[in-house]
Amino acid sequence: MTLIAQLTDLHLRADGADPFHDPYQATRDAFAAIRALDVQPDAIVLTGDINDHSTSDYGPALALLHAAPVPVLPMPGNHDDPDAFRAAFQNWADFAPDHLSFTADLGDLHLITLETTLPNGLPGLEARHLAWLDAQLRAASKPVLLALHHPPFPTGLPHLERHGFAGRAVLADMLQTGQIVRLIAGHSHRAISALWQGVSCSTAPAIGHGLGLSFSGAAPHRPMATTPRLELHHWQGAQMISHTVSLPR
């Protein structure tokens, strides 16, 4: 078996300020919840937005994440500064030369992560990302867990989909190889699940603030106070079972 903890959208700020709750404490609470499990995860996968957009200093984040009970695999989100992120986490993951994607063997699974923030700040994948992914899939000898920051699948939420997702059609074709057993993402700040191209897909709730829910796009898409949560993904050799764990507010 393989057990993976997913934390996402911490939105840490160097000044520690947050109008809704303390994401540093929420992260420590997440580590405590993980430490209390009777089986420890193989790793914690952070699916992006570790820092808030106003913060390029990863010193506080590094100090926080060094206290994790199991290895941490950090991915960037659209709020992360890519150059500062690479410099801060260069010893935490083996990033691709021209983008912040990486792979890792986690028990019976092969993790492939993809950086999904394009140079223009919009979500998607360019030819270089897709060629790299194709090479990683060809080399993989285990079932693949694919992790992204932005969800490439339809969420039904106009605010999340207003910018589209570049490269979606090519990625959709690649999902049909049968190698990818699960796709996980962040960015939405809420739990969303879907079956897309025959693959079970999900986004995780945020460790940081929540976001308003609107199926019409008429309601403001604004930060709000919600209970921080993490996801546990349990691979049992033939299926992935996921659990949502609520943390103190």
TrEMBL record:
* Protein source organism: Ketogulonicigenium vulgare (strain WSH-001)
Task: State the similarity comment.
Answer: Belongs to the cyclic nucleotide phosphodiesterase class-III family.
Alphabetical list of Pfam families matching this protein: Metallophos
Q: Could you tell me the keywords of this UniProt record?
A: Hydrolase, Iron, Metal-binding
Q: Which GO terms describe its molecular function?
A: hydrolase activity; metal ion binding
State whether keyword Ribonucleoprotein applies.
no
Which stretches make up the Calcineurin-like phosphoesterase domain?
4-190
Protein name, as recorded = Putative calcineurin-like protein phosphoesterase family protein
Q: Which domain of life is it from?
A: Bacteria
InterPro entries referenced in this protein's UniProt entry, alphabetically: Calcineurin-like_PHP, CNP_phosphodiesterase-III, Metallo-depent_PP-like
